[in-house]
Amino acid sequence: MVEPRFDWGATRVTPKQFERQIEAVMSKDLGCVTLSEYGRSAKLEERRLAITFDDGYASVYHHAFPVLRAHDIKATVFLIAGYAGQMNAWDINIGGLRFPHLDWRQIELLAEAGWEFGSHGMSHRDLTLLTDAELRRELELSRQIIERRSGCHNGWIAYPFGNVNARVWHAAVECGYRSGVVMGSRPAEVPEPYARIRSGIYLFDSRRSFEHKIDGRRQWLYSRVQRVMDLCSDGSVIVKRRSW
User: Fold this and answer.
1) Residue 74 to residue 238: CA distance in whole angstroms
2) Residue 129 gets which letter from DSSP?
3) 2, part of any domain
4) Virtual CA dihedral for 220, 222, 227, 229, nearest 10 degrees?
5) Which residues form the domain of 203?
6) pLDDT tens string 152-193
7) How far is Cα 44 from Cα 10, in angstroms, rounded to an integer?
8) For position 145, which CATH number holds?
């Protein structure tokens, strides 16, 4: 989220942070592209940056979109198809805090501005824990809904909680996906096109750590930080699994 309201989690930045981060991006020799454009570019010497948002919160439209539009930057959003226009009841929400997701009209406006969309499942469930029937529904139905409503047919998926294994990968291929992204590390049994590694940006990131991440410096350090964040994410899976 790019969210001014308080939240117990660190998986957000404030609008002021985000604005400063984009200013840092613009000060460097980086080509800002959508994730599909990033995947298609074969020249390794090109310095490219693809900005992605998981979950599809409405704050992306209200706070990130104006900043990126001012710099002619287009981003990629991974939507939880079953929660468009609803509050984030899928999350733990300590203290009863709730945040709205993008509605379909906002998604259409972002699409008209050149943004693209991928799937984050139907209900943000850990795909590795589902039955074959549940897994196929999460993958196939979410892709169909998002493509129909947004007009974007890029075939990308961001696995909920960053969790993927060989069974999920094979199911994703069968359901029409062509690429996927994860946080932290890529499982050895999943080929890179279906598990491209991203750098997470969090509330505790300073300008220095943000610039390190986009420059690819000190990756050993930030990969360890990401592993801690992944463990916290897996804790959420344990708590929420009771309600699935």
Assistant:
1) 35
2) G
3) no
4) 180
5) 15-243
6) 999 999 999 999 999 999 999 999 999 999 988 889 999 999
7) 32
8) 3.20.20.370
The number of domains in the chain is 1
Distance from chain centroid for Cα 109: 19
Residues 6 or more apart whose CB falls under 8 angstroms from that of 90 comprise 80, 83, 123, 124, 125, 240
Between the CA atoms of 71, 74, 80 and 85, what dihedral angle is there, to the nearest 10 degrees?
60
> What is the tens place of the pLDDT at every residue in 6-65?
888 888 999 999 999 999 999 998 889 999 998 887 565 578 899 999 999 999 999 999
Is residue 79 situated within a structural domain? yes
Nearest to 160 by CA among 122, 116, 125: 125
* 61 phi and psi angles, rounded to 5 deg: -70, -45
CB atoms within 10 A of CB 70: 11
> Is 10 inside a domain boundary?
no
Tokens 């359901």, located at residue: 175
Q: What does the alpha-carbon distance between residue 159 and residue 224 come to, in Å, rounded to a whole number?
A: 20
Contact 139, 58 (CB under 8 A): no
Is the distance from CB of 77 to CB of 115 less than 8 angstroms? yes
Residue 1 lies in a domain: no
Written as one letter, the residue type at 93 is: N
Query: Tokens at residue 125, please?
Result: 């469930």
CA-based radius of gyration for the chain:
17
